[in-house]
Amino acid sequence: MKLSAPMQKFVVHWGEMGARWGVNRSIAQIHALLYLADEPLHAEEITDILQIARSNVSNSLKELQAFGLVSLEHKLGDRRDHFVATHEPWDMLMAIADARKKREIDPTIAILQECAAYAEQDPETPKVAAERLKRMEDFVTNLTDWYGQMRDVPQGTLIKLMKLGTRIAKFVGG
After folding, report:
1. What digits encode the pLDDT tens for the residues 78-105?
2. Is 10 exposed, middle or buried (CB count within 10 Å of its CB: 0-12, 13-18, 19+)?
3. The domain at 5-85 falls in which architecture?
4. Please, where in the chain does CATH 1.10.10.10 lie?
């Protein structure tokens, strides 16, 4: 597989964007490459195209599989593992959101619940701090509950809601 200039630019930018979001640059570049690929690629091909270490490719592919962004495929007569990315941007967004929720938000809620409960009982914690911890816990919990509800809304409906933008406020009285 040969990358054209726009493909190269996308792969490089996706890597930079991933790094800004706390994802290893190589992971994001491999994801971009597989997203653009018209057929599954094996690790050696990815190594050759992106000019990154084979061990880095292997670790990155495991991470991408854990995120649900890349899956494994086999080709008849070829013992090597081949990898393919989901090509639906909406599915990519949901996989990333789910992974980040599990990794970042769920532990935060647990800590907030613990801190708010402890602060409420702790005579050394100022009342204003205890109230702010509780407000933050409520906010993050409500946001997470809303996210869970939105995950159950059909994709087509969510896209229509997104396209409505601020006009949706008219329907809810805002």
Report:
1. 999 999 999 999 999 999 899 889 989 9
2. middle
3. Orthogonal Bundle (1.10)
4. 5-85
